[in-house]
Amino acid sequence: MEDEVSVLFMPSGLRGQVPVGTTVLQAAQRLGVDLESICGGQGKCRKCQVLPQEGEFSKHGIVSRADHLSELTATELHHQSRNRLKGARRLGCNARILGDLVVDVPEESQQHKQHIAKAVTAYDIQVQPALHLYTVTLPEPDMHAPISDKRRLQQALVSEHELPLMDCEMSQLRLLQPALAKAGRQVTVAVYQFQQIIAVWPGVKREVYGLAVDLGSTTIAAQLCNLFTGEVVATADTMNPQIRFGEDLMSRVSYVMMNEGGDAAMTQVVREAFNQLAKRAAKSAGIALEDILDMTVVANPIMHHLFLGIDPTPLGGAPFTLATDQTQVMRAAELDIHLHPEARVCTLPCIAGHIGADTAGVILSERPDLADEYVLLVDVGTNAEIVLGNRNRLLAASSPTGPAFEGAQITSGQRAAPGAIERVRIDPETLEPRFRVIGCEAWSDDPEFAEKSARVGVSGICGSGIIEVVAEMYLSGVIDRDGVIGPVAGKDSDRIVQDGRTWSYVLQAGERPIRITQNDVRAIQLAKAALHAGTRLLIDRMGIEKVDRIGFAGAFGSHIDVKYAMVLGLIPDCNLDKVGSVGNAAGTGARIALLNFPSRLEIGEILPKVEKVETAIEPKFQEYFIEAMAIPHKTDAYEELAKVVNFPAPKPKAEQSGDEGRKRRSRRRRPA
Amino acid sequence: MEDEVSVLFMPSGLRGQVPVGTTVLQAAQRLGVDLESICGGQGKCRKCQVLPQEGEFSKHGIVSRADHLSELTATELHHQSRNRLKGARRLGCNARILGDLVVDVPEESQQHKQHIAKAVTAYDIQVQPALHLYTVTLPEPDMHAPISDKRRLQQALVSEHELPLMDCEMSQLRLLQPALAKAGRQVTVAVYQFQQIIAVWPGVKREVYGLAVDLGSTTIAAQLCNLFTGEVVATADTMNPQIRFGEDLMSRVSYVMMNEGGDAAMTQVVREAFNQLAKRAAKSAGIALEDILDMTVVANPIMHHLFLGIDPTPLGGAPFTLATDQTQVMRAAELDIHLHPEARVCTLPCIAGHIGADTAGVILSERPDLADEYVLLVDVGTNAEIVLGNRNRLLAASSPTGPAFEGAQITSGQRAAPGAIERVRIDPETLEPRFRVIGCEAWSDDPEFAEKSARVGVSGICGSGIIEVVAEMYLSGVIDRDGVIGPVAGKDSDRIVQDGRTWSYVLQAGERPIRITQNDVRAIQLAKAALHAGTRLLIDRMGIEKVDRIGFAGAFGSHIDVKYAMVLGLIPDCNLDKVGSVGNAAGTGARIALLNFPSRLEIGEILPKVEKVETAIEPKFQEYFIEAMAIPHKTDAYEELAKVVNFPAPKPKAEQSGDEGRKRRSRRRRPA
């Protein structure tokens, strides 16, 4: 057998054993590490640059040294001489691994196939999994006391581990006698919920794993965790392959309604995606798929039902009745998910027809039910799920924001992916914009921007970029409070152009122009009005004036600058330092449920007490919605905010035909 | 749709609906009724004769009249004229069914493909099944109270039926909303053990069924029962297809040991046989396979383990350790048994490595644990399972009788099948035998025997025939107490012939002679000595002198004449009127477990208290075994018996070389 060494890639944390002499690029590919390579390992493209680390990584049992890589090759020396390979960097395709190693993959060497923001959110979870391992050595069989090996196993678990008498899954009972024979009558069993033996191994077994999956309409993200340490040992993400049946939820439900067997087809592809994710995560972590014994899933109601194989048609129209609003536990195999043969799957409960298990995950992560203060939690997608409350009372609603916040139905909109504009600033004096795209650190006014962004390009604008550009357009006077675009008084800018009967703002000119049209601003207004009306409804219902804390969950929430969200009136008044992203709270909720079994019971107790507010049948919703179309919806709030963050006040606009009598405001400089 | 009428075949009890105009033979074939036909329905072979019944069969809702059959055809009239079709008999292939009908299939018209004695044994069972049906109508969904349909269902079961809050299998949850939509929000659910919803149907559902299966090494017999009335609506039997891997249990275990995957292959074929049986039974009863929701199985340990997919190798040698000695409940689907998707299978517990769930079934059927008197239960196969005890104490053992009682390893031995000699009498004066074969009512001394037995022939001798012939040989002096065959003093009979160094008794001369050799008698002596030694061991262990009642279970037990069994010393002393067949007690036990759920718990409580006596390690077993070789093992007992049943005393035998000094006895005439 060839000698193997340990290699750990950072920042992904992916690790594994590779044979001595493997190139770093080969190792990365084998372990599923995101390391760019265009020339196919010929040493030409220089994309696969890595930085070897020196030091003792005792947590991982690795002593890493630069000389654990082969010496610099002629190719690398050549690139160094031309300053294309700086410092201690190496070409992944040239450097061969000779000893244990920790390797940094710099940002620019990462492939960025898909910018998936459902990263692991740090969270302190009390590890108390649904299953435990027990190792016992059974007495030899005795013809004078002819009892079965199953009964001997039960007796050992009772006497040595004080467990109740419990049954054993038949598939595992089949393994018992061979396991006993193999390991001198020593076996390890996995006991689920202290009541059922679901796995049997010969000898000693120490570690088993679980998957926490956040199943979104667009993205599926899995966290593979050690069930006893709680450590996230690998993550894996993929696009939801159901997209081919319809981009958004409603089009997928329509697909089911229109196509016999459409639900089964969508169920099948999403389960296949789960299997692929599980395989990749297991491979990344260097564990066997069969060592995964538990899984938790959060999802919106339609994804949730489709995953379980339940026809979501009733969720496609009023009265939006869920088949189940409870925690469901079943065997992974029943869902065609291939982990350990007796692995369990637990789906967190959905709350109502529009409020899913993902929101249950957010609640589990943020625990508003334990808070003294009034907490508002917002998870923005095609619908915005909103939770408001504290230890005394919880309300939940879903507001039909539409997909504008996700970049859909926006002229130059796109998903959050490399090349998408995510940050925008407009100079209030010149009205010139500058922006940053995903996958490039430089701003567009950086002289080297063209070179630096060459790889990703500038392909469109994503949700957080849209929020910023519309807010900046407002702050610079390009749009007024009603959202109307037009020339700014005293400014002569070719950024504001006539576009048929309305005006547009040109974010990027040239061959592939990116412009914000009047319709785009309207779409954002509609979306933010829906979100605002929903939160206002809940605040009303709660009978309070103001919320104490606001948490944005999810990818959108992680990216947007909350100041801009407040400028546009997406969220209600709140101290700005009490507003922030809560990360991928849904995914964190899935991980909490995975690692802390009691939380599954708790969420089952919390949810029935949550009061569901159905926006569609609330008469006030429409009223609030219309009121919330303007920007900002409340002048006072804006003024307050402007003071706090030292925003400029919105600038006066040139008088436009049909848009006369607009008030002028004094300008304030915005800090750079 | 064509008109259909009801037809019920007796004695099988198989019934169903057939279109008007169907011939009786077609109907029989469709319903799985055992009706002979050789000429393929041409009216030539006259094998398919049936007798229509007249009368009101109110239990079955049938008013049967002879004129519900078409008029006699020319073919039938022709056969009548030649006296080949007697009385009211009809040819099944000619008579067409015009109205509801009950049809007798005379013994000689039955095919007797396989003489399977595992018939339904009448037994009064308190019907209390493991599952119940509940029909509820759920309120319409309400957007103001957005709860899931699952929760509504739970609430209805709690409030209307006082059931606990219970979960629903995912496969059935998928059916809930479509069922509600289909039947005006009325559904029927099946609840298993008052704790789990395992089936959902739209609207009202009234009847579901269960299968009780007796899985033997040779035969598999299924009883399909209505779970609420307890009625056996169909039975089906088949050979155990594992026979191709080995005739007896040990050869099958050897097959597993010698062939990689041998256990899986045997598991697969036996499950396929289960599926075929279930299909046939469902078809016979005219029900859908999906209406079968529960199943119980009894089997010996090796069959039991193979059915469950457990490698039986540890049962092939000391210490004969069972993988499980408990009741196992799982989904039929897990065992590749295709009934309702959530149908359950319950295997009764095995007692020890040689004492199976079939014995558990015998205990459940006979309940020796409730008796005041000492009950001895014997189930004879390749091994004899023996249970002895009463309400205070139960003992069980398995005794290695070998296959002689099943006709194996006997010169002219065969299984109990048409053509096998099952009854034998030897004239003590002439030493001439007369016998009867399975499938023919006439004795061999009937002048018409040749004609009457022509169809089945005389092919060999089965277990019960062997017992009788050996006992009769003893009673007529052909063998002595040590089992030695030889000429009888004063008798000149060509039935006793020299056969090398020993003698044989010729039961049938001619081209296909059937003779009982010295080795055959030895085989029976060994078998009966083993059985006797086993029972004596248990009687010893129990510390009693005499048992109060003896029950023979199984096919062998149903066929043998207990007098002969006692003459040979198969069974210990007991009042003859307290000895009898208990029918297919194992199969009855399976049916009890199926129909009376509490009995499954009871057997689980009884069995651990049963003291297992391992004959292989009991020093006294060998001693008793040797002592029990002689016939009868106790002269006094025989004398008692002879008085009671008016047997002749054993006759004196001619002095043979090496067999001198034999006592002579006075003869008594045996009644005809």
Structure write-up:
The structure is a homodimer of 672-residue chains. Chain A is α/β, with parallel strands linked by helices and 672 residues long. The first copy, chain A, folds into four domains: 4-109, Beta-grasp domain (Ubiquitin-like (UB roll)), CATH 3.10.20.30; 131-202, Ubiquitin-like (UB roll) (Roll), CATH 3.10.20.880; 209-347, Domain of unknown function (DUF4445) (Nucleotidyltransferase, domain 5); 367-403 and 524-643, Nucleotidyltransferase, domain 5, CATH 3.30.420. In chain A, helix 11 crosses helix 16 (619-627) and helix 14 (585-595) packs across helix 15 (597-606). Chain A has a six-stranded mixed beta sheet with strand order 14-13-12-15-17-16, sandwiched between helices. The model of chain A is unreliable at 112-119 and 655-672 (pLDDT under 50). Chain A contains 17 helices and 29 strands. Chain A binds chain B through residues 141-144, 146-151, 167, 170-171, 173-174, 176-178, 308-311, 314, 318-326, 328, 330, 334-335, 350, 352-353, 612, 614, 616-617, and chain B through 141-144, 146-151, 167, 170-171, 173-174, 176-178, 308-311, 314, 318-326, 328, 330, 334-335, 350, 352-353, 612, 614, 616-617.
Radius of gyration of chain A: 28 Å
Find the CATH topology of the largest domain in chain A: Nucleotidyltransferase, domain 5
Number of domains of chain A: 4
User: Which band does the percent of strand residues of chain A land in?
Assistant: 15-25%
Main β-sheet description of chain A: 6 strands, mixed
